[in-house]
Amino acid sequence: MLLRLLPFLLTLLAALAMWHFSARNLLRQLSARSVPLAEPGLAPVLDRLRAALGVPSLPVFVLDDPKVNGLAAPDGRVFLTEGFLALYRSGQVTAEELASVIAHEIGHVASGHARRRMIDFTGQNLLQLLLVGVLGRIVPFAGIWIANLITTALAARLSQRDEYEADAFATALLIKAGIGAEPQLSLFSRLDRLVGAGAGAAPAWAASHPETARRMAAIRANVTRWTAA
Questions:
Q1: DSSP-derived pairing of the beta strands 60-63 and 78-81
Q2: Which UniProt keywords apply (predicted)?
Q3: Measuring CA to CA, how many Å separate 98 from each of 5, 79, 95, 188?
Q4: What share of the chain is helix, strand, coil (3-state, %, to 5)?
């Protein structure tokens, strides 16, 4: 029995070790390429977020990357890229819209998504090993391909769930801070154009983020439900 479980146990240990190594490497890279956010024009909206959260400060940093993106690190830090700040400085994005991005990334931190993704990643590796073993016997040539499709679709679904949760957290925080959900929605309405999404994007079932229209619909539904309560 133990011998039969050995491949799964080894896969589990390997997945955990890979995730921890990847997380440590990511943190080192982020620290080396970032500085604390010091943008005077953003201070008022950040103060409103901080007050709404009831914390003395927000761990927001600027990442030296020309892409338009925001991210939450496993250690709780939140990052905006230089590309996003460039849009703000050129007037293409408002301070309130950037605050909605920061609120979204704080949502990932508050919801424990980094820890959850470690569990998801480990489970997906075990599932893939099981599927390859089973499907490889049933359809020898296509089994690995089918197993990869299934685990890719599962990973995308779990990632999209996290994005919806972070969106909902951001909406609630923005409302509590007196900023409201409109900046979040207005940024989403231009997001695909700003980040250059479109040609070459992953199909919906394999994408790590939900379709923008669906995210906006979920935000509006949350606002309607919360304001009607």
A1: parallel
A2: Hydrolase, Metal-binding, Metalloprotease, Protease, Zinc
A3: 48, 11, 5, 11
A4: 70, 5, 25
Is the CB of residue 135 less than 8 Å from the CB of residue 147? yes
| Contacts of the segment 57-65: beta carbons below 8 A, 24+ positions apart | 58/102, 58/106, 60/36, 60/102, 61/30, 61/34, 61/35, 61/36, 61/37, 62/34, 62/35, 62/36, 62/37, 63/30, 63/33, 63/34, 64/33, 64/34, 65/33
User: Tens-digit pLDDT profile for the chain (229 aa)?
Assistant: 556 656 656 655 665 566 666 667 778 888 999 999 999 999 999 999 999 999 999 999 999 999 999 999 988 999 999 999 999 999 999 999 999 999 999 999 999 887 766 655 555 665 565 656 665 666 666 656 565 666 677 677 878 899 999 999 999 999 999 999 999 999 999 988 887 755 444 445 446 788 999 999 999 999 999 987 6
Q: Are residues 72 and 110 in contact, defined by beta-carbon separation less than 8 angstroms?
A: no
59, 76 Cβ separation under 8 angstroms? yes
Looking at the chain, the number of H-run helices and the number of E-run strands are 8, 4
Q: Among residues 146, 149, 188, which one has the least CA distance to residue 167?
A: 188
Domain boundaries, the chain: 2-228
For tokens 């040609």, what's the residue? 199
Question: Starting from the edge strand earliest in sequence, which strands make up the sheet with 34-36, in order?
Answer: 34-36, 60-63, 78-81, 70-72
